[in-house]
Amino acid sequence: MTGLLEGRSAIVTGAAQGIGLAIATVLAEHGARVSIADLDGEKAAAAAAGIAGEARGVACDVTDEASVAGLVTGAVEAYGGLDVLVNNAGITRDASLRKMTLENFQAVVTVHLQGTWLGIRAASEVMREARAGSIINISSMSGKVGNPGQTNYSAAKAGIVGMTKAAAKELAHHGVRVNAIQPGLIRTPMTEAMTPEAWAATEATIPMRRAGEPEEIANVVAFLASDLASYMTGAVLEVSGGRGM
Ligand code: NAP
């Protein structure tokens, strides 16, 4: 692998499994030193130990202000700065409007919107001082096209797009870039809950006729994190095999 991100300090939230783990793995392969943050600190540490390259596991709840502040401070202390933040942590609580509870709605909106906002705010404090940094927010095609049963999730993921653009405009002249990715259907523990019928029906709607792998999201994150994307900010990249274009 190349040293595209050689020596850079990167944080990935929700990175003990799924897309986040793939992102952490690929960033480390490109030379980054990665702080793997997840609710379960032991799982995060085990994930870090399994990565070829420099990585550390950290317990962090992205909805908690002090926890996110500690995550950023810890990364700066461990790796001498913060160059990349990937706001990836996420949950689903799918239900129709008739069955969705207020708790289901608030939980999803809080993890995705408050979590991403706390991350952007804490990381940008460090990055604007350094006059460099790249923040990548994981939205979803659900936030572009809307999915039945996901009024909470689609709203939160669309909100991440607005937040990305607003933060990109605030931070551009400080040398900090903020972009978002909208993955389509990706094979992870989050989507393993789908029935085989629902999975097949969704795959049939994808022009490329297959779900994506977590590494296919991670590779786009590596690009946005690197200097290859030095003139990109406020962009929203669809990585969906053509679904929802
Ligand atoms: P996943 O396998 O469920 O992984 C998400 C990780 O985030 C889990 O380890 C989870 O921990 C952690 N997490 C949840 N709440 C957290 C919190 N408050 N603080 C810190 N960590 C937290 O999901 P995934 O499929 O990899 O999804 C990753 C991101 O991609 C999410 O933002 C998701 O919405 C987005 N996405 C996924 C797909 C897809 O098809 N898979 C498509 C579009 C977008 P627990 O397991 O303990 O809850």
Key words describing this protein structure:
Rossmann fold; alpha/beta; 245 residues; binds NADP nicotinamide-adenine-dinucleotide phosphate; single chain; seven-stranded parallel sheet
Q: Into which percentage range does the β-strand content fall?
A: 15-25%
CATH architecture: 3-Layer(aba) Sandwich
Strand order of the largest sheet: 3-2-1-4-5-6-7
Identify the overall geometry.
globular
The CATH superfamily is: NAD(P)-binding Rossmann-like Domain
Beginning-to-end CA distance, first to last residue? 31 Å
Average of per-residue pLDDT values: 97
Give the uncertain stretches in residue-range form: none
| Estimated radius of gyration | 17 Å
List of distinct ligands in this structure: NADP nicotinamide-adenine-dinucleotide phosphate
Total helical segments: 8
CATH topology name, in short, is Rossmann fold
Topology order in helix (H) and strand (E) letters = EHEHEHEHEHHEHHE
CATH class: Alpha Beta
Describe the 3D structure.
This protein has one domain: Rossmann fold, CATH 3.40.50. The protein is built from eight helices and seven strands, in the order βαβαβαβαβααβααβ. The protein has helices at 18-29, 41-49, 65-79, 102-130, 142-145, 151-171, 196-204, 214-225, and strands spanning 9-13, 33-38, 55-59, 84-87, 133-138, 176-183, 236-239. Helix 1 links the parallel strand 1 and strand 2 (33-38). Helix 1 (18-29) crosses helix 8. The model has no long low-confidence stretch (mean pLDDT 97). NADP nicotinamide-adenine-dinucleotide phosphate binds at residues 13-14, 16-20, 38-40, 60-63, 88-91, 111, 115, 138, 140, 183, 185-186, 188-191.
